[in-house]
Amino acid sequence: MHIEIVEIGNFRKLLGVRIGLSKEKTIFVGANNSGKTSAMIALRHFLVDRERAKFSLNDFTLSHWPTIDAMGKAWEAAKAADAELPVPDLSPVLPYLDVWLTVAKTEAHYVQKLIPTLDWDGGRLGVRLRFEPREGLQFQKDFLAAREDAKAIQAVDEPQLNDDGVPVAKSIMLWPRSLSEFLQRRLGKLFVVKSYILDPTKLVDPEFGVAHPQVIGSDAEPIDGEPFKGLIRIDEISAQRGFGQSDGIKDSEDDNAAAGASATRKMSDQLRRYWNRHLDPYENPDARDLRALKAIEDAQKAFDDRLREGFAPALKEVEGLGYPGVTDPRLNISTRLRPIDGLNHEAAVQYMIQIVDGENSFDLNLPEDSNGLGYQNLISMVFRLMSFRDAWMRVGKASSTKTDMPGALVPPLHLVLIEEPEAHLHTQVQQVFIRQAYDILRKHPELEKNGSILSTQMVVSTHSSHVAHECEFDTLRYFRRLPASVRSVPTSCVVNLGNVFGADQDTRRFVTRYLNVTHCDLFFADAAVLVEGPAERILVPFFMRNQPDLHDLAECYVTWLEIGGSHAHRLRPLIEHLGLTTLVVTDLDAMTAERKTIAPLRGAGQKSRNTTLGSWWPGKDDLDVLLDVKSDEKIKVYANERFAIRVAYQCPIDIEFNGNKTEAISNTLEDALVFQNLDFFAKTNGNGLFSRFKISIEKSKTVTELGSALFEDLKGGGKAEFALDLLDIQDPNALRPPLYIKEGLLWLASQLRKQQQELGVATSTLNGVPEAEEK
């Protein structure tokens, strides 16, 4: 048994998304404000803290607020007209979580109350958890009564007059002015989470990343009680782990779903909790506890005797005051020693440091607060995972609640939610944790043996590319931001990266290996730039930082990937599924009909050997055609996916050379730089390509000769050294970027500004003037 799918709808940015869960671990990735946290909060509200979840109106998707207010106005209008009130149906706007389980027929005894029909023969089972009014009619009645009270009070208020004595509208409006305003105060009292059984035959696939939830009829009856009680144990490590706090809500001592997500997570607190659950000898003692209990009893008796002896003079002095009298009870001093008292102090957990002084060594103990936050966080999370596992498996004293039946009282499924485990951790430790976390949750004989019916699923949300780097591609779920232009407010969809490449195993293998050996921040960026080689990887960001009209890009999260013209197209399926705005900076790479590389020349029947240009965009390989492609034709817009990519390759430019105005055609970044900055390279002395370029400029009589000379110069290598030397020039603004690169970067900047506006956030400033205010 495992959770196959969860669908979240009408909850914050998640208007309707489907998230497929892997059988073991699932990793939520995505750029900032893409909905990862919303998904984790939804899981927490509906699954972890269902009975005490603090839903608010802000948890309802913003695009539904006008619908809610319109519904309230319709109720008021009907009442004012003394007409029949509309049935209060809020189902289209109510937050919900659908949980779809895959259950074998042999496990039917676990899910008896979730089986929809007698025809069910194993497979999917679905449950909807929906936040809705306790009583719809009573909710409607309470709102209308509140509105009537507000209007009545306002009606007796004296009208305000203007200077001419004419009544004007009152400036003060009493609560509630609308149904949404009513809900802001009364939501917690009037709403509750209810559960409904879903029909597996009506589950449909998402369309363009947007889920289509199953419609529940108004006559549907909710499930009594907790639908997952005894079926799923749910634990959570939240992002707010409370290090350094001395107060806060402590975790409950029961073995139910994790509580107190914001509680202090000091190691000593966790040790005390673990002791109470699994080790306390007073709790169902066995033969192994008898020696400890006898030692505690002896120590307590000896301490009592010493206390009575020590307090005897003081008590005798009190008796001299007339108390206690003949009829008064006498004082007796007694101790109560419990092993847990040894952990109830600040130094219960210490870190030992060994000091070596010559041939001698000694140990120093430091309190746990003296250790770095990274180690505290790591040790705390690992210990909590162990505690979750042992509580689930009834380890230690908890085992006394088991019956003789194997697996009895142990829920067959354990779901663990971990939010942003990377906090305070170094990159290497992040990678170690995500590699080991699931194994820790399964480190128990019952769980490790083959054929175990007990399953563990771990869900992790992260902003760390290092965590994503360590995970299999199939485990990643990408949260993608959708622009507000598509809907009234920005929302999100979720992409299962395991389905990106379909049956194309060669592309899948290449991309997976490529991302495993590069910095995998593609899943967290606002945009991507794919560059040809090391020279572009060095110089394109250099141009971006030093060109005044490109400064906006420096304020955005842009990821740079060095992929090469012959391989960039292999990232196409991934880019298209991510819907990530992408600029591909590549080379023209001219060749003859015999596939021999050559300097580019018009009218010579040349082709481009660049696979990206031929197979992705603009989908052409004829050199003369590519040279005449207009700037806006280099943009590929994906209408259904609401994003675009652009290719940037060498384009003809008009220059003046040896007194003649002519067209220059370059083949790579280096010769494009020369044509764009002829005066600079003609006057600059240097080694390697600098020296060869200067000689070629001096000796060439025509642009065609210069192009051929530069082509030969580049055969000698040294491109990376050339790029590094350019970083060292005294005035970076003296070097103009090639036209094709500047056009591409300006397009990318415009797309990111547009994206910021669509997502409802303030854009970058140009000349100190904001382009858009935050919505």
From TrEMBL:
Residues 523-589 form the OLD protein-like TOPRIM domain. Transmembrane segments: none annotated. Residues 1-52, 235-468 form the Endonuclease GajA/Old nuclease/RecF-like AAA domain. Coiled coil: none annotated. Residues 243-265 are annotated as: Disordered. InterPro entries: AAA_GajA/Old/RecF-like (IPR041685), Bact_Antivir_Def_Nuclease (IPR051396), P-loop_NTPase (IPR027417), TOPRIM_OLD (IPR034139). Pfam families: AAA_15 (PF13175), OLD-like_TOPRIM (PF20469). Gene3D superfamilies: P-loop containing nucleotide triphosphate hydrolases. It comes from the Bacteria. This is AAA ATPase domain protein. It comes from Collimonas arenae.
